[in-house]
Each structure stands twice: as C-alpha cells, then as structure tokens.
Amino acid sequence: MASKIKKIGVFTSGGDSPGMNAAIRSVVRTCAYLKVDCVGIFRGYQGMIEGDFKPMDARSVNNIINKGGTILKSARCDDFRTPEGRKIAYEQLKAEGIDAFVVIGGDGSFTGAMIFNKEYDFPVIGIPGTIDNDIFGTSFTLGFDTALNTVVDCIDKIRDTASSHNRLFFVEVMGRDVGHIALNAGVGAGAEEILIPEENRGLDRLLESLKRSKQSGKSSSIVIVAEGDKTGKNVFELKEYVEEHLPIYDVRVSVLGHMQRGGAPSCYDRVLASRMGVKAVEALLEGRTNLMVGVRDNKLILTPIEKAIKGTSKLDKELIRVSEIMTT
Amino acid sequence: MASKIKKIGVFTSGGDSPGMNAAIRSVVRTCAYLKVDCVGIFRGYQGMIEGDFKPMDARSVNNIINKGGTILKSARCDDFRTPEGRKIAYEQLKAEGIDAFVVIGGDGSFTGAMIFNKEYDFPVIGIPGTIDNDIFGTSFTLGFDTALNTVVDCIDKIRDTASSHNRLFFVEVMGRDVGHIALNAGVGAGAEEILIPEENRGLDRLLESLKRSKQSGKSSSIVIVAEGDKTGKNVFELKEYVEEHLPIYDVRVSVLGHMQRGGAPSCYDRVLASRMGVKAVEALLEGRTNLMVGVRDNKLILTPIEKAIKGTSKLDKELIRVSEIMTT
Amino acid sequence: MASKIKKIGVFTSGGDSPGMNAAIRSVVRTCAYLKVDCVGIFRGYQGMIEGDFKPMDARSVNNIINKGGTILKSARCDDFRTPEGRKIAYEQLKAEGIDAFVVIGGDGSFTGAMIFNKEYDFPVIGIPGTIDNDIFGTSFTLGFDTALNTVVDCIDKIRDTASSHNRLFFVEVMGRDVGHIALNAGVGAGAEEILIPEENRGLDRLLESLKRSKQSGKSSSIVIVAEGDKTGKNVFELKEYVEEHLPIYDVRVSVLGHMQRGGAPSCYDRVLASRMGVKAVEALLEGRTNLMVGVRDNKLILTPIEKAIKGTSKLDKELIRVSEIMTT
Amino acid sequence: MASKIKKIGVFTSGGDSPGMNAAIRSVVRTCAYLKVDCVGIFRGYQGMIEGDFKPMDARSVNNIINKGGTILKSARCDDFRTPEGRKIAYEQLKAEGIDAFVVIGGDGSFTGAMIFNKEYDFPVIGIPGTIDNDIFGTSFTLGFDTALNTVVDCIDKIRDTASSHNRLFFVEVMGRDVGHIALNAGVGAGAEEILIPEENRGLDRLLESLKRSKQSGKSSSIVIVAEGDKTGKNVFELKEYVEEHLPIYDVRVSVLGHMQRGGAPSCYDRVLASRMGVKAVEALLEGRTNLMVGVRDNKLILTPIEKAIKGTSKLDKELIRVSEIMTT
C-alpha cells in the first residue's frame, strides 16, 4: 500500500490529561515504524497558526510514556475559530509539508478539526484525551482511568481523617457536564452519596441519606459532588445547608481541583494511548479521515468525528444502582 | 420475587488479589440491601469444611474497599477435592443454614464449586478474582488492573536506575500460563522486549532486538519476562546468555514477586468488584446457579462455570503488534 | 526496677496525623513487653470523661502501623477545660485503675495534660502528633514528614498540568501559625515563591518575582501559600490580584485541604512513632512525668511539657535562603 | 568575596540514588545565583576522562527535582584509579576551564576525589548520594529516606498477601555492609525479625522468634534480610532452612532488588539535596576543599573526605532495641 501521506503532524489541544504523552509517543513511533515523517506541533491550534513545529523521530519520545501533562503543550485558541486563522494554519502546514494530522483532545478540539477537514479536505484523525470521559464513541477516554485513581487515593486519605473525627466531607471532583468521575470514584471510594449533573434528586433526599448513614453506625461520611451538580448549591453552600438542617454532623469541604489532571498515567491509560496512536496513524495511511479512534469491548473502533461530537456519553444506570446498594 | 434463598455464604479461595475485599463488601451489602442473611466463610473451602463461619452485616465490611488481600483469608484445600471432604462441607453449610454461596477466586476454586454444585444441587456463583486475567468469560478479572499498575510503577523505578547506568534489565512478572500481565505491563512500561508463555520467538530474535535497541541510541533496556515464558531459560539464565552473546550490555535481573498480589486496589478494580458482587447475589436470588460473573463491553454477563474453566483467555494479537511497533 | 505504675492509658487528641496509629501500637506493645497493662481511651479527653476505655494487648494493634488516622479516634473536648470535667476524668481513670497516660497530640492536648498533672499529680507523658511541626522541643512531629510527601506529590501532579498550559498556580497548604509545611514542601516541589505566616515580604515582591520567573523562560509557576500567610489576601484574592496586576499569567488556585492529614505514614514517621512510644512508656515507668518526647539530632529527648507549649518552633533561616536560591 | 573559582563541574558517580537530580539542580542554580559558570560532567569519572561536558544554566535543570536517577548518568570507572587516567581527567578539566568540582556519590567516588585533590591540588567537595546511608559524617545520605519509603510500600503490599494466606516471607533488601535500610524499613514495616550485617544472632534465635510469633496469634510474618546478612544463608537458603526446621509455616521469598534505587525522591531527600547543593558550591567559593557536606541535628556540616571514608556509620542501638520490643 503506497499512501499519499508522507508527513503527519501530531498535537494536543484543550485541557491536558494523563496519557497524552503516551499517545504522542505512539503516533511518533508508529510513523517511524511505517517510514512516514512525523512533526510535533506545539500548543495545539495556536502553534499550528504560528508554525511552531518540530520534527520528531523515535528517540525524541524516549521516557515520556510515564509522564503526566503533554510535552507538546496545550492551549485554547480563539484564532482557529475564524476562517482567517484556519487559512494561516493551513498555509503553515503546507509550508512544512504536513499532509495530515492527529489531534489528541476533547470535543472542542475535534470540532476545530472537523471544520478544518471540511474546508481544506485535510486528513484528520482524533484521539480522545480528557479525564472527563465525556465523549461519545469510546468507552474510555485517555486520562479517565488515571484521574479515577487519583481521586480515590485522595478520598482514601480524607477518609482517614474523617473517620478519626466522625466527620462528614463534601468532596468536589471534576465533571461540569457529566458525572463519570463522580460516579465511578464515588463507588470506588465508598462514598455515602454522589451528586452528579445528570440528575438532581434533591436536598431532602441528601439529608435523609445522611441521617440514615449516621444512624446505621458509620463513623464518617463522604459525599462526592461533581462540579456540574444540579442541586443549585456548590460544596460550600452544601456544607452550610447540612450544618443548618442536620447539626449532628461536623462538616468539612475539600475541592480536589487540578491535581486530578496530572500524575503518571495508569497502565491502562498508557496501553490505551499506545493502541490508539497506532490506530490513528494507520487510519490516515489507509486514506481514512474525519474519524475518532475509540475503544469498545476492548477493541479499537473508528467513529465519525461529527457523531462523536454530537453524541453524549451516558452514565451507566446499573452503576448508579450499584452506588445506592453499596451505601446500605 | 420471593426467592427460596435466605442465607448466602461468601468466601475467597486460591491466590488472593486486590479487589477481593471490595467484592466481599459488595456481596455482604447487597445481601443486607435485599434482606438476605450473609455469612462469611474463612479460608475458602478449608474453612467451609471446618465450619469457620461468621455472620456479616453491612457494618462488618466498613473500610475494607481500599484494602488489599482478603479479610476472609484464603487457602488451598486438598480435602475439598475428595467426596468425603465435600460431604462434610455440605453438612457444615446446612447446619449453618447457608442456602447458596458466592466464591471469589480462580479456575481451581471454580472447579470445586462446579463439582459441589453437581453433587449437591447447591446454588453457586463465581466471581473471578486473580491478578492473572486468565479466565475465559470476562475481559477483566479482579486484581488484574491493580497488578498492572503495581508492575509499571516498579518498572518506572527500575528504569530510573537502568537509564542512569545504561543497563539492561530482565524483569520477571507473574503469569505461569498466560502473558496478560507481561504484555500489558510491558507496553505500559515501554519495555524493549516481552517474553510470554504464548509464543517462543527464540533467543536469536531477542539478541537481534537488543542489538538494534542499543544501536538506535536507547540509554537503557527493559525486557519483561513472564514466569511461564517458553524460551527454556529463567531470568537469571537469560542474563547469563545475553552477557555471553552480547557483551555490550551490563545486565541485571529483578523478580517482582508477590508484591504484585497486594496493595490498595485501583478504582477500576473497586468498581468492578462492587458491580460483580451485586450481580452475583441477584443471580442467586433469581434462582440461577453454576455461573460466573464477568464483564464484557463494560456490561456484566454470566457464563457457565464449566465454560469459564474450559475456555482460555487469549492474548490480544493487536496488542502484540502494538508492542512491537512501540519498540521502534 | 519496680515501678508503681501498673496500668497506662493511651489516647490521641486534637487534629489527627499520620503516625498516630504507629505510636499507639508502640505504646501498647511496649507495655506488653514490660508487663504493664495498657488501656486505650477513645476520642481523647472526651472519651476519658465518658469512660470510653478498652484494654489493649499486643495483638489488638496488629496491622495498624501503616494506617493513617487513629484507631482510638480523636475529638476536641470543651468539658476537659473545666475543673468539673477534669474531676470526672480523674474519677474515670481511677475507676479503671489507670495510673498514668500517654497523650498523642499537639499544643492544646498537652496543655490539658499539664493542668491535669498539676491538679491530680497524675503522671503524663506527651508524644507530639501533628502535621504542622509547630512544637518546641522536637525537630520533627509525627505526621510532618508524611504530610510533606503528600503535598509534593500533589504539586508534582499540578505541575504536570501547569506546565502543559504555561499556567501559574497558587496552592494553599496547611499551616495557620507556622510555615514549616509551606517552606519544606515549597523547596521540595520547586515552587517559585513561598508565602509563610512568619514573614510578609509584600505583594510587590511577589509580582517582581513572578515577572522575573516568566522572563527567565519558565513554563509554569507554582506559588505555595500557607493558610496563615500574612499578605492579607487568601489564595483566591491573590489570584485576582495577580491577574489584575500581571496579566501575562493564566492563574489557577488549588487548596489541598484535609487530604494532607491522611494517608499511610512514611517510613520515617512510622519509625519515629515506634521510638517515641517506647520512650514514653519507659519514662513513665521510671517515675518521670509532665514531659514530652522529642527527637533532636536523631536522638530521643524529653522536654518539660510547659516548655514545649511556651516555646516556638522556628523556621530554619538557612532553608529560607535555599528556597530563594533555588528559584533562580 | 572574590573567589578564584570561576567554573564548577558537577557529576554523579557510583550507584545512583533518588535525590541526585535535586542535588545537581541545586549545584547548577546556586552557581547561577552566585554568577559562577557550571558544567555538567556525564557518566562520572569516565566522562571526565573523555571530556563529556555540557555547560548548564538555571533552565537546564527545570523539572528534574522530582525525577529519580541522574540526568548526568553514572558509571564506574577503572581508568580513574590509575595515575594516567587521572592525568587525562585533569587535562580535560583544565581544557574546559573547570576550576573545581562537586562529586555526588558514595565512598568509592569520594576516594577518587580525595586522591585527585591531593595529586592536583584541585578543589573538590562531596555530596553523599547513596541509598545505603553508609557514610560517616552525615545522619542521612541522599536517597536513603526515599528507599525506605519504597521498601515499606513494597512490604505493605507483601503483607496483604502474606496475611491472607498466613504465610511467612523472607524479604531481601539492599545493604551489603550496613543494615540501615533493613533496620529502619523493618521497624517501619512491622517486621517480625530483621537480619543485618552488623550482628549474627544465629539461626536458633530466628526459629525461636518465629515459633513465638506463630504462637502469639499473628496471621503472617515478615523477616527482613539485608543483602550482607551474616547468617551464612541467603534468603532462599533461609526459606529452606525454616521449612525444614519449622514446618508450621508456608514460606515465600521476595528480593526487592534495584527498584529500591529508583522513584521520585521523597520531600525530605529533595530538601536535603537542595540544601547540600548550596552548601557545596558556597564551600568551594570560600576556598574550602576536600570536604563532604553532611547533615547533623538538621544543620549542614562539613567533614574531611578522608574522615568520611574511614569512619563507619553505625546502627543506632536504641533502634535495634525498639525493633525487638515492637515484635512482642
């Protein structure tokens, strides 16, 4: 098979996530293996517009598989949202001889790639990199598994002090639109209650649940709250609300914040990233485009980027039920 | 639905794995939630024969979801392999009023359960708990994900010292019959070569690969060797062989050993264990038996224990190919 | 030597810290070794007043050396601040036959012990357990070393995402009155600036420093802020201030919070706790009282509790200088 | 103060240890801060002889404080043991304009530096970097604290599986000549017995101790064995011996190996390395030479290298006693 594609660009875009470096490494090494040139594009679309490029060979990605963050940096880029910006980007790519690119990122990054593909018939493949697992077309996004381990490790620590003092903690985790982190980490950390953006079961239910938990003899309680929770109250307001309505508890708050994005990726994320990078390059060389690599039933699949963007990644109802049974 | 089952026993058997405690907790809490009695059986079939039982309620499994090992202990049991042993076990269960049991373990433990089920028409459900991921009927066994993280964490450390000294390390990981740990951890840790029980590509190939790795400018090399590797040489003999035939390397050996079985379970293993425990109890209450809970495409499924035992859990060919590309 | 003391009480009080369980274990096992009875007192002075006691033998502290928190729980207790409360506590101790106690905690807990000792001539020895390292008479308090590792581990993760996006982070760590955690973790994490309660070098200096850091080509900046920092602004206000006066930065905030108190203790804290527990029991049996065990120059020392309370634990000036040089 | 020294070389030598990168960073940044040139020398004395030099500025050590291993690599070097080798090394240093050097390593590396200093009157300062803590003139060497945490973390994992199966484990840790790692990690991990090079208490005592441990009701036992243990048996032979003479135990062996040298350094090691690097550079600029930086009573001190080499770093008798009491 002789592909027309001779030089592939790779970049990371949007919020970073653990596993992005492993994906970059995989794209670079697959290019080397298949004798195609590879160019790293720094700071996402911003660097594309500025021509911030660097040729990469197999050795340039040594010892990064276990590093959090992204060696190619990431950035949000308003210019790429304009036709003028995209035109400059296209010219920069052409000047560098780049025939196609692999974009590692989330919804916003894919939208840019799709538009660019349509405007310039430029081959693009996406790899889903975000801790939120909020992308349709894949069971797991890169970084989700690592973020879950980071969150349960933090909550295990918080549990130590919570149970020493018989305290209640509200712990805020990432997830503006979807509750994947909250639900999975909540089950994994043995949380008493999990508040997610997908459903608002009301504050009364929360109070009932906490009252029951106390009566059942538990020495501490952890309530996980996704950023995008729909109770209408943030974690600090929830604390006040419970202190007022359920004064049997000594309440504390913890906002886990950006550490959820960092850290050495888990083995799962490293392996998934390695697999996805191979698939992305091979898809491009086979002449395919405008697709996102995903994993389903432990097999790699390709989904049109348009569908990936428009679809929603739904919470598993069975897992919601499991979370309720576990708090018995 | 009024089930005939009023009291469920739960135990762990065979080699322990991270997530077993989370599965015990889930079985116990699901029983409490569904108003069924639950009894913990200590030391697997041995404790069953000895009547080493303890009633468990929801509080008796507090704060164990994040603990490695198994609070119910595990043991291998020769007596249960005899009809006499199983007869005593049956009498002990009846005396305690136990109607059904959930066994958490691997192939050997399931075989015992299947025979017991046939002999006494006793309802049994299995949950696959083993770090080896060597069970047919499930994409993941409990403990596999955690073990992978433990292994890559160890190899990351070994890599630090290997690359400081430009050394070659042979690292032995668990896996007598299957190479799942070796292959996944090998990809995750960026190993230069992976030796697995499933295929013997010969020592010449290994030497070639190491020679090429050195020439490509890599500062260190890690070769992962599964216990059951088929080169005919163990890690120490491999070291000698390479030192003799490829004296360009300073070679060291590390045998990771039993620490691979321990440690706080990963979030994935905790969640999977929680889900499987619910499924196991519900299956029993629905009158089902002689089945193993598994996960496929992120959904829980039930497989006849007989098939689970006879089938084999094959390595993913695509991942073998990825491992080769990554060592470019 | 025949000591008059036949039964020793042990409890934890105030904020919990990693290593407290290791200290409890050491007190209990030293008592067993020296054939003295030992009684665990739950929830600090509150449990003492309520007679919440439990006899402890060597086996009752199995497998706790690596657990965060405190199996004896902790609590703050207003009643013990009154003569009436202390009288009841004394009567409870006498009724249980407790001759002396070891209190594991911080300043507040020691003050209570000292007053109690004076009022009832009751033998007491203190073990400093607090992550803040804010106690005179010891180079290290139990939990400080572990908390530092927790903090640098979190900041390493934050650094991953900060440097991927060229961001500035304000990270708040514990330390209301002293900056030990901020200073040590700041040096350990390679922070660009460290704001501590002991000195307010002004916001102008901060802006200067951040401007210089940016100019020097650093890809990210971390500023560590102790809770008790004296700039007059909390981390959120600092963020706003910098965004207004130094718009070259994209600024984020992270408040590490209570996870700093939890987690498996470091080896150092486990060893120190083991040593201090032995020393505390031996001191009591030698007829000594009203002293705190400390460590200096890697040797255990005893300091009158009164001095421990009144003295202050000063920051190391040399380390402040090191922190400045490191940000070059 | 105008020092004659204008350009300082820095290198790592001998076995690597966590914290070496933090020390390199500190030397480089202190040079930058004090306006002195700094040159990295790769692969220790070998690179010195080969002229493998690289000028380093403050930015060239970004993001290495948390990395295990050494970016300057390390090597053992036979040539430097000959006058001819040292002559070439001296000429290389002169050609590069290097006036003085900081050597980060252990006994062997310091011996080389001392001889070189005498032969060429070349200013040298040593920083003790080794996980073994076997150097006179300092309470802690760089990497010791990190290695202890790595070891107890591994043993915590082994304990999980040991106690699930009521097993006895012999765990071999590093330490050919001194038992610092074995003793401290043994106390920290709650080992039942610790076999160290410094004293051979005989196999009878070991059997007695294990028998007593079993009788006392412990569910598992961990025996820590330093590499240089003097029983005359290695861990595998110890296993056989115990199986033969004390068949009540199911015995396993684990050799932790080289992972003890790697991993992100602990906060303590990072801070100590930062302090030592400053001290080393300042000492050179003050005209001092042939000294090793150490820490005692949390203050930095300087010891003549000759004394550091000849002295021995003794085990703390008090800690040996603590280890015995803890196994009650």
UniProtKB/TrEMBL annotation, chains A, B, C, D:
Keywords: Transferase. It comes from the Bacteria. Its EC number is 2.7.1.11. This is 6-phosphofructokinase.
